[in-house]
Amino acid sequence: MPIEEWDHLQVRSSLCNGCQKPFEDKEDYHTALSLTPEGYRRRDLCQACWGAAERGSAISYWQGTFQIPPPPKPETLKREDAESLLRKFIDSKDPGHANVRYILAIMLERKRTLRHRDTTEQEGQKVLIYEHARTGETFLVPDPRLRLDQLEAVQTEVSALLAPPPAPTPVEQALAAVEQEANAAAIAAAENQPPNDAEPPTPQAQG
Q1: Residue that wins the pLDDT comparison between 9 and 170
Q2: pLDDT at 48
Q3: Average pLDDT of the chain?
Q4: Of the N and C termini of the chain, which has fewer Cβ atoms inside 10 Å?
Q5: Taking a C-beta distance cutoff of 8 angstroms, is the pair 128, 104 a contact?
């Protein structure tokens, strides 16, 4: 199966994939990563279910500590950050995103958002295995083998993606205000129109 078609984001299970017992907060667990015809397959197991059979069939395995995920934050409009960009590009089939994805993963590793768990090689390509420090998700990032003469261009591209959008010009602000006012007027006019099936007013008799 081509590496581009793998699922590069493997979500940590909230329960043991062996006995189906939910993980408790601060409980140690074991993760085994194996390669199947459909791509990578992750299994999270409690201490009691972890054994030699799981280790033998895995291409990579490690131990972690389960943390109950915090409640989701309310949706807010914000500029892209390194993590949101990596999530956007992690399963992209566009070969042009491979270099950006790799640099973003390195950045997040330096910030300790991602933990480098292992490095494996599949289909002649090196694959970096990361685990998210907070959520426990596994990120599989193929190494594009960047050359030194490519590095500066990729860093510039990443910086541009992370830069906040430019502030609107006075002309753009004025056009947006006009458009907003026109939309409000159109909505008000539509609300004041009588329904299509309304009966016409009865003519008054002439005295």
Answers
A1: 9
A2: 92
A3: 80
A4: C
A5: no
Contact 57, 34 (CB under 8 A): yes
Amino acid identity, position 64: G
* Measured CA distances, 64 to 35, 70, 207 (Å): 20, 17, 93
- 188: phi then psi, degrees, rounded to nearest 5: -65, -40
Tens digits of per-residue pLDDT, 84-115?
A: 889 988 988 888 888 889 889 999 999 999 99
User: Structure tokens of 24?
Assistant: 């408790």
Pairs from 66-75 (Cβ < 8 Å, separation ≥ 24): 66/12, 66/23, 66/24, 66/25, 66/26, 66/27, 66/28, 66/29, 66/136, 67/25, 67/26, 67/134, 67/136, 68/25, 69/134, 69/135
C-alpha 152/C-alpha 135 separation (Å) is 31
88 by DSSP, 3-state: which?
A: helix
Please report the pLDDT score of residue 54 as a whole number. Answer: 80
